[in-house]
Write a structure and sequence with these properties.
about 375 residues, alpha+beta, NADH Oxidase, 5-stranded mixed β-sheet, 4-stranded antiparallel β-sheet, about 40% helix, globular, binds flavin mononucleotide
């Protein structure tokens, strides 16, 4: 996660910088060695399903858990399963968001296959579904058919530079209404909403900020995130998923022991306070917000939400616009209930489920986030 010099100084103070030795400087410039390789490997495998899968695994997904497992034993088909070890039971008790991430995966698979001349017919939950929990049944069956009539999806070009931007946005650059129109055009089936009006921005900055406070001050939900912190290059290469902290600041903090999973859990620590400042710097610099609503909240709705979310994210990339979901107020655990009700009253007053809420704005393109290689996600070749 790249971090500005301003945050660096704020976090560890001038004294440590003065004390920094040449060896510390060498540590600070370390980069992950293998965690980003799947971004370079995408498209290299000539087998049509593996080629499309190599793009699909670059999809956005909650906490970068990459909860996908695929069975390729049936010719021309990909059977997708949710990895039961990669769910988020505290912040995502019904696996609604994990399912949205799997919808992102399936849509990216479809987009990539369209560029190889393949149509992909996707059947969500072919053996049925449980609305309360993901079980061992398949999430989807995707059948590949060579089809000369398939239209290559133009969003494909933006897969390699699509990001979730977890840095503050440029508050001197307003987002024009025309940018929202480009995002609307990308959405297929969910109800899309967006606003760049100053009054809405102020209200939603506050609501998303306060909802983040609830997540962090609820010990089990905060710990669920902290357990997924990968601090510094070595941890990120060993587990290329979760919430990654790399770049000069975090290499230095990891090497000096100033940031550990224990210290960030301690509300009296400097690392805890710095972490709060960093996440509030994001909610508080929203330059607009976008959201998606579905009338019902079936597993198929969640898959459709993911398909539209990744399309939005790719369309935003094409516009040079940055996005970051701010999902806390949409989450279904008791401590969040007041914010869940408030966001639904505001964005879905006539009924329905707010499935995604994100801030939009402008920022430098961040580094790609880590990924597990495709081989590790195949259960039957
Ligand atoms: C359903 C869903 C919810 C998400 N919620 C958040 C969120 O609340 N905050 C955030 O920073 N990112 C959120 N993300 C983005 C993921 O963290 C991100 O996709 C993942 O870390 C991989 O990074 P990438 O999108 O840059 O490849 C969400 C993504 C999905 C699909």
């Amino acid at each position: 996660m790249p971090t500005s010099r301003r945050k660096f100084i704020a976090l560890i103070g001038g004294g440590l910088i003065l004390a920094a030795s040449a060896s510390l400087a060498a540590i600070a410039t370390r980069q992950p060695r293998t965690a980003h390789l799947p971004w370079d490997m995408a498209g290299l495998d000539p087998e049509p399903r593996r080629r499309a899968l190599s793009f699909a695994l670059l999809s956005p997904n909650p906490h970068n858990r990459q909860p996908w497992l695929v069975d390729l034993s049936e010719p021309d088909a990909v059977v997708l399963y949710a990895d039961p070890d990669r769910l988020l039971p505290h912040t995502d008790p019904m696996s609604r968001q994990i399912t949205i991430g799997l919808g992102c995966f399936l849509e990216t698979l479809r987009i990539a296959a369209s560029h190889g001349g393949y149509r992909v017919d996707i059947t969500p939950f072919p053996d049925g579904e449980d609305p309360d929990r993901l079980d061992a049944r398949p999430v989807a069956r995707a059948v590949f058919t060579a089809d000369a009539a398939v239209t290559p999806d133009a969003l494909f070009a933006h897969i390699p530079t699509r990001r979730t931007t977890k840095d503050p946005f440029d508050t001197t650059r307003p987002v024009p209404d025309t940018a929202l129109a480009a995002l609307t055009a990308a959405v297929r089936s969910t109800r899309f909403g967006g606003s760049v009006a100053p009054g809405d921005i102020a209200d939603l900055r506050l609501l998303t900020h306060d909802a983040l406070t609830v997540e962090i001050e609820t010990p089990r939900t905060y710990k669920e995130s902290v357990d997924l912190f990968r601090i510094g290059r070595a941890e990120v290469d060993a587990n290329p998923d979760g919430i990654d902290f790399t770049g000069p600041l975090f290499e230095t903090l990891a090497a000096t022991g100033l940031m550990t999973r224990e210290s960030v859990l301690d509300p009296t620590s400097q690392a805890y306070k710095a972490g709060l400042d960093a996440v509030y710097a994001n909610t508080d610099t929203a330059m607009g917000h976008v959201w998606q609503v579905t009338e019902t909240n079936t597993r198929a709705d969640q898959i459709a939400t993911g398909a539209d979310w990744v399309r939005l994210n790719l369309a935003a990339t094409a516009e040079g616009l940055a996005l970051q979901p701010l999902s806390q107020c949409l989450q279904e655990y008791p401590e969040m209930a007041a914010y869940h009700a408030a966001i639904h009253a505001r964005l879905a007053a006539g009924g329905g489920t707010v499935q995604m809420l994100a801030r939009i704005g402008y920022a430098d393109l961040p580094s790609p986030s880590p990924r597990w290689p495709l081989e590790t996600r195949i259960i039957h070749a």
